[in-house]
Description:
The complex is a heterotrimer of chains A (196), B (498) and C (498). Chain A is mainly α and 196 residues long. Helix content of chain A is 56%, strand content 2%. Chain A contains 9 helices and 2 strands. Chain A has a two-stranded antiparallel ribbon. Chain A starts with a helix and ends with a helix. Chain B contains 14 helices and 19 strands. Chain B folds into 2 domains: 4-198 and 261-495, no CATH class; 202-259, no CATH class. An 8-stranded mixed beta sheet of chain B has the order 8-7-9-1-12-15-6-16, sandwiched between helices. In chain B, strands 17-18-19 form a 3-stranded antiparallel beta sheet, with no helix packed on it. In chain B, strands 2-3 form a two-stranded antiparallel sheet. The chains are: A mainly alpha (196), B alpha/beta (498), C mainly alpha (498).
Amino acid sequence: MRPDPRFRVAIGGVLVALLAIGCNREPESVSSKARVVAKSGAVWGRDLANGLGLQEWELCAELGGYDCIGEAHLVALGGVEPAVLGIDEPLPNATVSAPIAVDRVASSACAERWDRDQAGPAVIFGAVLEKDSAANREAVASRLVERLLARTATRDELRALTDLHDAVAPVSSSPARDWGVGACVVVATSTEALFY
Amino acid sequence: MLTRRQLVQRLAAAAGMGAGATLFNSRALAQQGDDPRFLIVLCASGGGSIIDGPLAIRASESMNPDGINTFPDELVTTWSDSPFRAVDQSAGSMGPIPAGFSVRPSEFFGRRRNELMVTTLTGTSVNHNIAQRRSITGNEAWLGRTLQEMVAWQYGMSAPVPNVHLVAGMGYNESGSDASVPTYARRQIVADPLLWPLSLDGSKGLAKGLDPAVLAAVRSARNDAFEPANRFDQIFAQSARLKEWKELRGGAQADIEALELINRLMIAPESTSFPLSEYGLSGSPSADAVRAAFPDYAIDPLHAQAAMAFLLLKYRVSVTVTLGPSFSFVYDSTGAATNGLPDDSVLNPPLAFDFSHQAHRAGQAVVWSRLYAVVDGLISLLQAEDFGDGTSMWDRTMIYIATEFGRQKTRPSGASDWGTAHDLNNGVMVFSPLVPGNTLLGGVDPDTGLTYGFDPLTGDPEPGRTTAEAEVYSGLLGALGIDTSGSGLPDVPAMRKG
Amino acid sequence: MSRSPPPLTPRPHRSLLGFVGAGGVASLLLLVARPGVAQPPGPATFCEAYPDAPACAAGEVSCTTCHVSAPSLNPYGTDLQAALLPGAARPLAEADFTAALPDALAAVEELDSDGDGVDNLTEILAGSSPSDGGSVPAPPDCTDEDEDGWELCGYDLDYAYKKVMLDFCGRSPVFAEREAFQAAKDREALLHETLDQCLDSEFWRGMYGRVWNLANSKIGPLQAVKSGKDVGPIPLADYDDDYAYFVWTQTEDRDVRLVLTGDTFVSASHVDGVTVYEEWNRTPNQDYELRGYDRYQAVQRSRRAGLLTHRWFLMVNTMFTAIPRTTAAQAYRAFLGLEISKLEGLYPVEGEPVDYDSRGVQTDACAQCHSTLDPLAYPFSRYEGIGGGNGESYSYNSRRLDSFTDTDGAFVAETPEAGVLFGQPVADLIEWAEVAANSDAFLRATVSDYWEMLLGEPPRATEQAEFAELVDRLGGEHAYRVEPMLHDLIDTEAYGAP
C-alpha cells in the first residue's frame, strides 16, 4: 500500500521538528556587557537550602563540626571576616579551592536530600526512588531545575542531565542514588546557580 | 580551556613592554619550573624596627644615648666576625599588658647570622596598607608587579597553587596592578591553614558525597553538556568571572586532587576536633615534623601558617608563600600568672609591631622574637628537606622579612619603654643562601638612629645615601634569578651572591 | 625655634612638580617611576579633547585611563608619555604639560596601545578601554533573535527582578514568584515594590547585613581591642556604635550627609529577629554612667561630626598622634573616595606643609602629598585618641597639642585648628564635615559604594552618563536619601540590561 501523501508531509514535518530539537541549534545572541557577579556563599547556600527543602545549617559540615559555608570555606566562598582576619570585602577573584568547596557543599546537601527523600516524604527524588527509569529520571531532572534554578528546563538541559546516568552507571555501585545526587550537583554548581 | 603554556604563549603575543624574555617563553618557564627558587615573605606587620633587631645601637656608641633608641651595652650581644647584634631583654609587663616577657635573640643570631643579609631602606609611606604594598612592589617599580607574582610567574608554571598568602587583609596580600601577569601567578588567599586542606578534594572527607569516579563524571556532565546547553552560560560566556571560574575548574583542580593535598597538607592531628579517621582522612606524613617546629599551631595562627608554608613548598604546591602576624591579640592562657597574665603568654600583642605606639621596646622585642622562631623553624625544616638532586630545599629558598616601615628613633630621655610613631627610615632582613650572608648593606648612625644606604654595585656603605624601595625590590628579584630584562629596574648586584 | 606659620592660602591645582626646586627633582624621580608624571589637569584636559567620549560624561576621566596605579603607566599611558614633548627635559612644568597634552593625545590616536585590534581613538569614542586588551567596543547594533525569555538589547525586567531579589533580599525568587512576576500587569511597579520590601529585610539593613558590611573598610574593626558585645582582650572602643550609625544614615528617609555631620549616636539591637536602630543623644557623662568607661562616647554634642568623632574612629586612627594625618586620610578615603597615596584629591596649599610636629614632611618627596594632607588633618588634631594628650581619651580638647611638646617639639602646640579641604579654608572639624558632606566627591563616593557593591566593578566608560545622573539626583531631587537613589539605580541599563 502506498503511503498517503498527507502522511508523508506530516512525517516530514515531524522529522524536521525532531531534527531542529536534536541538532542543538546555537543561539546567536550574547551579552555584550558580559558582566556577572558571584553569589556569596551565604546567598548561594540559601538558594540551595530553599531548593532542596533543607535548613541552611543542614547543608554541609566538615568533619561533622565546621559549617562549610559559614566557617570552613567562608572566605573561599565569598564571605567576609573584617574584625579578625581583616577581610573587609569578598575576595575580588575566585580562589583555586572555591570550585572544589562548592562541589563538596553541593554533594553533601544533595546526598542529604536523597537520604531524606528515601526516608520520606520525598521532595525531589521521589519518582526515581519509586522506579529508576529514563522517564522518571527526566521528571527528577525537571524538578531539580525548577527548584534550584526557578525555571523550566530546556530539552537540551534535560538531555544533559539524563545522559549523566550512562556515565555514572559503569562506575557506581548505586547508580540510581549516584545519578540523582550527581544530577543535583550538576544543577546546583552550574554557573547559573552560582552567578547572576 | 587554555593550558598554562597556551596562556603564556598568548601573553607573549600580546605583551608589549617591560618583560623579561623568560617570562613569555613557555618552554623557558617549564625549564625554570624544574629549577625553581622559593620565596617566603614573612611580614613584619605593623612596622618592625631594624634598630630593635640586628642593627641595635649600644648606648656607648651614641652621642645621644638617652634621647635615641639605644640599649644598655650589657644587653647587646655582638660577634667579632659580624656586623649584627642581638638584644636579650626582659621586663615585667608589656606596657599596659600585665604580662612579663623574656627574649633571647642572641641564640637565634648566633646560629643564623651567616645566612642573613640586612639591607637598609627608607620607604615612602607611613600608612600601614600602603607601606605594606610598597614592600612587595618596590613602590610600583615594575608595573606594579609583586615579588610573589614574579616568583610564581617564572618558577610556578607547574605548581598547582604557585602563590599562596596565608595572612590576609593587608597590603602585603594585594594583587599587583599588571594585567599581563598570568592568572596562575596571582595570589591565592588561604584564610585558615588548619581547615583549608578540606577544600582541596571534591569527595574525600565527606560523610555523604560522591565517589571520585562518579564526581568526575558529574563534573564532566556539568562542564561539557549541561552548561553549554544552558542559556545563562551562553549569554555570559565572555564574562571574565565565568572564564576565570571555568579555568579554576580545570587543570589546577585536577592537579590538586591528584596530589592528595587534603591529607598531605593536614597539619592537625587526630582529635575530637579533627576526627580525621572517621572521615577517611589521615593527616600529613610531615605533620609531626611541622608540629614539632611550630608547636603552638593550634592557638597561634602564625605557627599554623608557618607549618603550612613548609608543607606547601615541600610538596611543590607553591613556589612562594606569604605569612605573618595579624593585628589580633594572641596569647597562651596556660601557665602561672605572676602579674595579670602568665609570663611570656603574649604571643602577639594587639596590632603586632604597631603595639609600639603604646610600648615600643616590649612590642618590638616580643614580635621580633616570634618572627625569629618562625624563621628558625622554617630554615631547619627546609635544610632537612632534599630537593631531589642532593641539595636541600633551603639551598634555593629566600625568607624576606618585609618590615613595612620603621619606628620613631627618639625616646623620652632615658625611658625604658615609651610609645613610638611610624618612621620611613628602616631596613629589611633576608635569610637565604642566595644572598651574601653575614652581610650588612648600608649602616646606622648611632647618634640619630637613622640608617643610611650603600653603593648598589659594590655594597660599600654610603652615609648620606638612602636605599629606595625599588632598589630593594630589584635586588631581591636579582638574587632570586628572576629575569628582569627590559624592566628598567636598577641593578643591585650587591644583594646577590657571586 | 618658634616660627610663625603663613596664613593658610589655598592655591589652585598645580603640577605635582611645578613648585619643586631643582634639588627636589632627584628625590621626586625616585618616587616617580618615570619622568613626565601625569598632572592633576590631565583628566580634564583629556575630556576637553574628547568631550563626546562616554568616559567624559562627568567631565573628567579617571586616573586609570593612563595609569595602572599612579604614577605607574598602563600601555596607553606609556604611548602617550612617549609622544608628550619628546626630548624635553623632565619633569615638565604644568603649563607645558597642559599645552602639549592635546597634541600628544592626537599623536597616539591611531595606535593600538593594548593590542586588541582596535585603535585608541575608536576605543575612546566607543567607550572601551584603550589600555585593556580585553575591552573592545560593543557591536554597534544589538541583535537578539532568540525567543528565550531574555531581553539582550535593552532592559530586561525579569532579569532585573531576579537581581533585585538576590541583591537586596539575599535569595533568588522561587519558581512561583518568577511566574507571578512574569504574569504581573505592571512589572515595573512590582519590581520597585519588591525593592521596597527587600530594603526592609535583615539581609539588607540588619546587623551584619549588606549595608552593615559596606562600612567594613570605613570603620576598620579589630576584635582585639573591641569593647561591648564580643569584647576583646584589650577593650578600647566599641565599633558597633559606628556600624549602627552608618546603617542608620543609609536607610529609610534619612539624609546620608549625617554620616559626617550628625551630632547624635545610634544603637542597634535585635528584637524578635529584627534589628532595631535607635538614635540617642546622651551627654558624655550620661553615657559614661550608663555604659561605662570602655564604651562611652566622649565628645560633647557641639563638637560632634558624625562618624568622624565616634570613639572607635578616633581610637583606631588617631591613637597617640598629635597631628592625625592617618585619621584625615582615612576620612578622605572612606567618605570622599579619594586616596592620597595614589595622588588623588591633591589640593596643595601655599606654604604647606609647615611640619609643626617635625616629621620631616617638608622634603620634596613628602611635600607633594603633605601640602594637601597636613592642612586636611589640622581640624582633627583637637580630638583625643587613645592618649598622648591632656584631655579625656576620645574627647574634644582645644588645648590637646600642649601635651605633645615633649615628644613632638614645642612648635606642635602652634598647629592651627583651622584647615583646608578642597582648597577651601575650614575653621574646625565641624566645618570640615559640612564642606565634605556637601561636596561632589561625597555624592560620587556614596553612589560608588552602592554601584560597586551591586555591579561588582566601577562604572564603565559607557556607563558614566548613567552614573553621573544618579549622583545628580541623589544631591538634587532625592535630597541625599540613599533609598530613592537605589530605586534609580535598579532602573539603569547598567543594572537591568543583561
